[in-house]
Amino acid sequence: MSEEWFFEYIRRIRREMEELLAEVEERFTKPLLDYESRCLLPLYEVHDLGDEIVVRVDLPGVRRVEDITVRGTENRLLIEAKMARSVSFEGLVTYAQGKYNYYRLELTLPAPVDYKKAKALFRGGVLEIHLPKKLKFFKVKVE
Amino acid sequence: MSWRVHKLREPEKGFKLFVGVPDVGLVGPIAASFLIKNLKLDLVAYFDSDEIPPLLLFHETKPLLPVRVYGSGSTYVFVSEIAIPPRTIPSLARAIVDWAVSSGAEQIVVLSGIPVPNRIEIQTPRVYGAAVKAEDKEMLKKSGIELLREGFMSGVHAVVLKECLLRGVSGIALLAETYMNYPDPGAAASLVSTLGVLFGIKVDVSPLKEQEEEIRVKLRELMRRTMETMRQAGKEYEYTLPAMYA
Description:
The structure holds 2 protein chains of 2 kinds. By secondary structure, chain A is α+β, with helices and mostly antiparallel strands.
């Protein structure tokens, strides 16, 4: 009984690692669009700046901030955005043919964030989200 | 590791070769493709290697190799539509300079980008220059192009300049401020405009600006492949101060 917490801890670590690996695999191997949902996956970057996480997302074709939705939890972020007009992929040898006008990105954040203090800026088709980390600061006296 | 050049036509002597290979912001290939289309250049050579992915490209039903040279008169353009695997970059740079020198090029100009963190706030990206020969540096300065003064340069443009330096060939790199990881047609437009100032190549860049959003959407996959190769190619060295700086 006393070891149960340990096994649960190991299971949780394994689960988190599997989620992270799946996300990395998806990022580099899957196509940047979903044919079924007619949705594009945008290019993005996540920067850990110590006390905040900055997520930058390239959303070409999106013109208005009203067309962007950013939602999330402490550890997850979901970004959806509608383009002003559809983009066509015609004549390609792949299954990607057709029109797309929607972006969707779901990602795991490297640390829990305080979403109440989050700020977002959209300029030139690039969305930049600043997410302060949930941190408990302490001070050490130096002698 | 070697590259094979399949020549379709011999260029006229004394031409300038502009090189656009995927790197930061895909600035080089965007600018190169725009020049090829708008100057209506002819296909003159294919570059091929066993070290690149086994691909054949189709454009308007026409089969094409992904690494090609186009040209006409005194303007030739080398373009790659695939991200070059990092360990193949040095041999590609040698092959480009070999072909250019043996075909009678008078100058090699590599078109690429320089990533800046505040790109989101920049309306018109600036273009910086680097050159091997003193007279080329002087020409850039006289034309108002700021020269790169200190630090490492990484990627195909770095290795092409290295080959030019070792062989005494006139080599220039033109680098526009760009996003690192997003296709940047705005930066490519700045580069193409600079070619007008430096070499008299006048091309209206407004179509490039009008199609900016579409280009950015459609080049996402190539950008992703390029990001992966940049990670393996020592791109982070550009953030490193050289020891001689201290």
